[in-house]
Amino acid sequence: MKRFFTVIAALATCLSVSAIELPNEKGVMTANGHVGLMPGIGLNGSLDYTLMDDMGPGHFTVGGFLGFNGSSSVASYNSSAFTFAVLPRVTYGVNFTTDFEAHVGAMAGPGFYSSKTRAEAGVKKESYVQMSCGFVVGAKYFMFGDMGLSAELGYITDMSYLNLGVTYRF
Which of 89, 125, 155, 157 has its CA 20 to 30 A from that of 81? Predict the structure, then answer.
């Protein structure tokens, strides 16, 4: 049992030490562009500004999210929906190496929803402004210096659950 705790302590120390010397220091900005999948198809972008870089082994960012998502279905009726949102965003990220970062984030703000359904009774349309909110868990892998790949999984009201794309740190 002592060996187990010694190994865990050694791993935690290595992660903490490596996180201290890594690139997300205060003032660094990261731009992300994603294609959203499931449900429907969407595009979104986010910008993260590193506000604090000394939060334990990680860093705290503030920024924004802009996205839209469209979906359609054909069952006994035809329906389509469109969502657009501009949201403030906060994340907490930990760099495990100089190239790999994992993060969690949350966002909330106004969103626009529009849908159209065709059924035997006719066409039903609805559009409204809604409160959009959500959370994400993601990772960034910087393969080419300050440019790399990004993935996020999570829930944002009426948006895609899986987002894959590119990231650029400046």
Answer: 89
Identify which of 129, 140, 147 has the alpha carbon closest to the alpha carbon of residue 105: 140
What H or E segment, with its residue span, contains residue 98? none
Q: Which CATH class is domain 2-169?
A: mainly beta
Those residues with Cβ within 8 angstroms of residue 82's Cβ, 6 or more apart along the chain or in another chain: 68, 69, 70, 113, 114, 115
Quick check: 48 and 26 in contact, CB under 8 A?
Answer: no
Report the C-alpha gap between 33 and 165 in whole angstroms.
6
pLDDT digits (tens, 9 = 90+) for 122-132: 888 999 999 99
CA distance 86 to 92: 20
pTM equals: 0.80
CA distance linking residue 160 with residue 38, whole number of Å: 5
Task: Decide if pLDDT at 168 tops 80.
Answer: yes
| 68: CB partners within 8 A, 6+ apart | 42, 43, 44, 82, 83, 84, 85
Tell me which DSSP letter residue 10 carries.
H
